[in-house]
Amino acid sequence: MTDDPEKNRRAIVPSVGDGLTISRSGLVRRGLQELSSLRPGQVIPLPEGARVLICDDEELLVELFEKILLEAGYEVRSTLNSLEAFEIAREFQPHMALLGEIMPRMDGFKLAERLRMYDPRTKVVLTSEAEPSDLEIFRERGWPFDILVRPFQKEELVEKTRAWVREAGGTPPR
User: What is the model's pTM?
Assistant: First the structure.
């Protein structure tokens, strides 16, 4: 969050007693008076653009995703640590999170759920070596996340990221 309301495209305002604890948050700096004028659950916009969070324990994969998306014009933050990813997401407010499926400490599924609980508008995508038939089973069961099947082509990642960021309300680079 920034102090500039024009840069803020969306953020969920907590209800009283939710324990807003991020001391560097623009909401805290604006003070309780302004917060008290907002309704619980009211939406404040986040910065425009296209922010992507990448988290996987495979360093080479993270570096590849980061390189491709930075070259395509996305603002990217990445980490190898799933616990750190949640903290980065709270500050960075990504439109999309690209997560490894299996990671130590907290796997991609649990991280995805935490990210969606924090901001349900963040588009969460898990990377997996799943078969196309597995994807159909996930969809039939109401799986709330998209899956990027590995291996993939660079163009596929860029094209799908553009669609996912747009779906989350971001403005993909041209």
Answer: 0.69
